[in-house]
Amino acid sequence: MPNIVVLVKQVPDTYSERKLSDSDHTLDRESADAVLDEINERAVEEALLIKEAQGGEVTVLSVGPDRATEAIRKALSMGADKALHVSDEALHGSCVIQTSKVIAAAIGKVDSVDLVIAGNEATDGRSGAVPAILAELLGYPQLTHARKVEIDGTSIKVTRETDEGLTHLEASLPAVVSVGEKINEPRYPSFKGIMAAKKKPVQTLTIADLGIDAGSVGLGSATSKVVEVAPKPPRAAGQRVEDEGDGGSRIAEYLVGQKII
Amino acid sequence: MSEVLVLVEHVDGEIKKVTFELLTAARALGEPSAVVVGTSGTAAKLKESLAQYGAEKVYVAESDDATGYLVTPKVDVLAALVGAKSPVAVLVAATADGKEVAGRLAARTGSGLLVDAVGLEGEGGVTAVQSIFGGAFTVKSQATTGTPVVSVRPGGVEAAEASGAAAEEVVEVPATDAAKATRITGVEPIVGGDRPELTEASIVVSGGRGVGAAEKFDVVEKLADSLGAAVGASRAAVDSGYYPAQFQVGQTGKTVSPQLYVALGISGAIQHRAGMQTSKTIVAVNKDAEAPIFEIADFGVVGDLFAVAPQLTDEVAKRKG
Ligand SMILES: Cc1cc2nc3c(=O)[nH]c(=O)nc-3n(C[C@H](O)[C@H](O)[C@H](O)COP(=O)(O)OP(=O)(O)OC[C@H]3O[C@@H](n4cnc5c(N)ncnc54)[C@H](O)[C@@H]3O)c2cc1C
Ligand SMILES: Nc1ncnc2c1ncn2[C@@H]1O[C@H](COP(=O)(O)O)[C@@H](O)[C@H]1O
């Protein structure tokens, strides 16, 4: 009966315009609609599939501003049991490493964790590194970019899918898994699920609750800093023509004009 | 001059092009030292090409564990070298493996992590140039602590030859702690075709849901082949099973920035644009005049791709003579 922690992140909706704040170059989380990152829906789905087959408990964990509760509720309405939400002003502007340390500390608050499931890469930062860094910090094996996950007692097998192809992985629990885009189709929360989620426990933690010093997180002590930001001017539309039986030839002429062919 | 560690990406005794890009980028920061982690005999095969791209040193870290475990052997080797050699920076490719190596290495060595750089500058410290939100912003960043660990996007930097001494130095692969590591029990590599790599190609021809079926994707392939281009696909095309996942372009697929990008039957959703809108020239064919792809296309044809693409393929062939 694996005890699973699923890591979810609220991100700016990729359908809306994403910006950096003018004052400190951090992600402007107010300007865009915020959603549960799609890859994390797949992480939640995978946790629920394991729970349905083998029992256990699914805890959702998110580090992010107060607003991230919406993302947490979504995960709960899909069927997760409870949630931890680390929210603290001091976290503003934290880098990937600092965030991972906070996540690792919060995982330490959950009793006897067997499995941590994350997305392989967030759509905002695209660092694709948090799951591996967590494995480093927790001393767990990492089985990342999973297309298939099999758990048998205390051992875990994962089929990893990357641009290189498939890699078959094996390790022992506890472990960190990250899921890839092709692993499953996440379920839609049912009406019943949405109602039930309202009553599920969400524990809010500050970094002090985690025993982390405010001076070691946030923009001021981030391991990297942005020194310059320049927006790229948006592309303008060029020429558009109707195909009148000569569309292909007209593209060819255009490409010749541009000296591309 | 101080050294810059470059983790070499290799398969079957061949170096991946991204490594040459990393060696080129490293020269802006210091003297490149290539780090080869692999089974015994690997470095000997790679040395000559590493020398051609300016590697002054080659650290040879060879053992069976090196390929028997996921990610951690590379981190172990690099961490030991960071301790012993105090490099100015460590560069790895921003691939799935590389990003994970970089993250763990930065965490272990207490260093700043700079992800997915498309360029590096060496004036006044190591500065990574990043292109974020699908190219909407260009950002420059620096590490504030430790040895900057930078993952560099394949295709982000143009590789240029320069001769290096490639002096070999054997280093140990630290023993793996099996309880904390992940064993690799099998690999099924993707067999690359004759077409150029998506992230390396100077022309990319992509097909979307408008292609309609896996069998019909050859209309995209034929145009690509006439242009010597790589083939890409939208997520809808991948999800519909028209084309394999590793060819997906976009937010959650590859980021490409070729001289020419041709979009066939692709609506141009923001997540697709995120992966291709920094292309130099964009050509689109779509039967819907309102398709958003036309907002960013330099040349758009409103029409049926099954009429337009084959005609273009013929025209290109004719011009090649
Ligand atoms: C978090 C997230 C991540 C995503 N990541 C990606 C990503 O990495 N890459 C990606 O591509 N998408 C991604 N998407 C999906 C994206 O939103 C779109 O759904 C997708 O790009 C649509 O693909 P399409 O343009 O091929 O399909 P459609 O939007 O269905 O467009 C098909 C187009 O083909 C045209 N057409 C049909 N028949 C013909 C014909 N015979 N001749 C000419 N034109 C024709 C139609 O007019 C239409 O415009 C992501 C979405 C989310 C939420
Ligand atoms: N602030 C966060 N809170 C919870 N999980 C996170 C957070 N940041 C990243 N993750 C997890 O790590 C995955 C990969 O993110 P990244 O490494 O930032 O690309 C995400 O899909 C999440 O599952």
What do you see in this structure?
Chain B: Belongs to the ETF alpha-subunit/FixB family. Chain B: Keywords: Electron transport, FAD, Flavoprotein, Transport. The complex is a heterodimer of chains A (261) and B (321). Chain A is α/β, with parallel strands linked by helices and 261 residues long. Chain A has one domain (3-221): 3-Layer(aba) Sandwich (Rossmann fold). In chain A, 25% of the residues lie in helices and 29% in strands. Chain A has helices at residues 38-54, 69-78, 96-107, 130-138, 191-197, 247-257, and strands at residues 3-7, 10-12, 34-36, 57-63, 82-86, 115-119, 142-152, 155-162, 165-172, 175-179, 202-205, 224-231, 239-242. With 321 residues, chain B is of the alpha/beta class. Chain B is 27% helix and 28% strand. Chain B has nine helices and 17 strands. Chains A and B meet through α3, α4, β7, β8 and β9 of A and α5, β7, β9, β12 and β16 of B. The complex binds flavin-adenine dinucleotide and adenosine monophosphate. The site of adenosine monophosphate has 25 residues of chain A, from α1, β4, α3, β6 and α4.
